[in-house]
Amino acid sequence: MSRRVRRLALVVSGVLLSGLLGGQIPASAATSASAPKAKPPVNVGAQTPGAVPRDGAEPTQTRPAKVVWPKKAQARLDLSAVAEGASLPVAPAGSADPKESAAVSVGPAPEGAARLKSKSVQVPAATPADVDVSVLDKSALAPVGAAGLGVKVTRRDGVAASGPVEVTLDYSDFKQHTAATSPRGCGW
Questions:
Q1: What is the 8-class DSSP label of residue 114?
Q2: Cα distance from N-terminal residue to C-terminal residue, the chain
Q3: Which of 14, 91, 137, 174 is deepest in the core (most CB within 10 A)?
C-alpha cells in the first residue's frame, strides 16, 4: 500500500475510535444536570358532569337553505323525429311549462356515441325510437341507500338490443329556498 492510503486509513480509524471512546454521560449526571424545576400546578375550573360547553360562535339570523328536489315525473318519448343535439323534457304531470319545470331531458345520442363494442368489432347500435323515462322520487331512493337524483330510461320500441340516448340533467331546477324566497317568509 502506498503511504498516502495508509495515512488516510489511520485518520479514518482514529475518527471512528474517538467517537466510540467518547462514551455516554452517566444517567445520574444527565438527570441531575438537565432536570427542570417543578412548576406549581394550574387550577382549571371543572365542569359539572354531563354539562355541555357553551358554543363560542356568534348567533346567526339566517337559517340554512332548504334544498327542493325535482318532483317525480314519467314520460314516453318518441325520439324518432328528434334531431341530433335536440332533446325532449321529462316534466312532472300538470306542469304549466314542461321545458321550464323539467330537470331531465332525453334525446338521441350524438353520432360518435352510436357505436358499441362487441368482441373488438364495431357494431352500429340504433338509437331507440321510443323510450320510457322516469324521474324517481327522492323518498324511493332512500331505502336502497342512494343519495341523489334517480333516473330510469327503458327502451320501448320493440328492439331487444340496447341503444344510446343522451340524458341531460338540469341542476338549476334544484331550488334552494331561503327566508327571502320561501313562500312562508321568515317564519319557517
A1: S
A2: 95
A3: 91
What SS3 class is residue 8?
helix
Contact 162, 125 (CB under 8 A): yes
pTM here is 0.53
Contact 169, 149 (CB under 8 A): yes
Task: Give the pLDDT confidence of 73-121 residue by residue, as tens digits.
Answer: 899 999 998 988 899 999 887 777 777 778 899 999 887 665 555 555 5
SS3 category, 87 = coil
Backbone angles phi, psi at 180, to 5 degrees: -75, -30
Of residues 165, 181, 183, the one with CA closest to residue 84:
165
| Nearest residue to 105 via CA among 75, 146, 72, 126 | 75
**DSSP state letter for 36:** P
* SS3 assignment, position 100: helix
In this structure, are residues 133 and 151 in contact, taking their beta carbons and an 8 Å threshold? yes
Q: Which residues contact 132 (CB under 8 A, 6 or more apart)?
A: 74, 75, 76, 77, 152, 153, 154, 156
Cβ-contact 79, 125 below 8 angstroms: no
3 state SS of 89: strand
Contact present, 162 and 154 (Cβ < 8 Å): no
* pLDDT tens-digit readout, 18-37: 666 655 555 555 555 556 67
